[in-house]
Amino acid sequence: MKTKKNNKLVSWDSHLDKKYGKKGTASRNKYEEGFEAFKIGVIIQEARKNQHLTQEELALKVGTTKNYISRIENDASDIKLSTLIRIIREGLGGHLKLSFDA
Questions:
Q1: CB-based contacts of 59: which residues, under 8 Å, 6+ apart?
Q2: Residue range of the domain that includes 53
């Protein structure tokens, strides 16, 4: 039995348009905000692992709990900017750079 392949490739933006709506819509904005939070957690986790730190060791360096670090890395918790800066500066020895697109 032959199966027919679907060779219709679409761009990532087209996929997001179909699934969440066009840029600027409420559902697309919600998706994009969630994705940014997810990326922050992944960046922190990768930096922590590259420095061979456990979540508990990072938490001790910045004055928070292992549970809070875990929640940030797993996108289950909003993070205050001041805490993010402490994690990056004191915990990971880095500097936070922000950009703003209007």
A1: 65, 66, 68, 69
A2: 20-91
From the CB of residue 81, how many other CB atoms can be counted at a distance below 10 Å? 9
- Residue 1: the pLDDT is 54
Q: Is residue 80 part of a domain?
A: yes
Residue 98 maps to a domain: no
Give me the pLDDT at residue 76, please: 75
C-alpha 40/C-alpha 25 separation (Å) is 23
Indicate the pTM of the whole model: 0.77
CATH number (domain holding residue 60): 1.10.260.40
Question: How far is the C-alpha of 77 from the C-alpha of 101, rounded, in Å?
Answer: 24
Cα-Cα-Cα-Cα torsion 79, 83, 85, 90, nearest 10 degrees, comes to: -140
Residue 96 lies in a domain: no
Q: Could you report the per-residue pLDDT of 39-67, keeping only the tens digit for each?
A: 999 999 999 999 999 999 999 999 999 99
Is position 5 within any domain? no
Number of domains in the chain: 1
